[in-house]
Design brief:
145 residues, 2 domains, 6 helices, alpha+beta
Length: 145
Amino acid sequence: MALEVYFEGVDDLVDHKNTIAKDKSKPDAKYIAAVGSLCDALTTIKTALKEFTAEFEEHIVQKRCRAGVCHGLIACAVRSQTDPNLAAAVAICPTNAIEDQRGEFTVNDGLCIRCNACREVAPGAMEVRDRFPAREAVAAAAAGG
């Protein structure tokens, strides 16, 4: 499992927290509250890693966001050059990221802020795609398949 290292790291932090908690030379209330907060945070992280392992692996290892909402993992693209609402998408883009490249519209990924305004006015013309090619597709292409 790709996330084993994260589980081990959280376990190490929990062990460290337990060592700190046993240190009787620091009876300060703020110190005790800090240790308790650390414990709560570590428990939350460990639970999230356990319950959402597939989603974390998808995001970290495969660099994919199935929901299409993680800005670093998605890219907007023109789906249909002939959609009648494409002009509205071009007009509403706040960063002018939808560019006319010799009669064909493309999205300049460097300018796009992934606000989805274009998709709201022209859902048939615009789409969200994975920003990185799927590892399986890259491997198949390299193998000649």
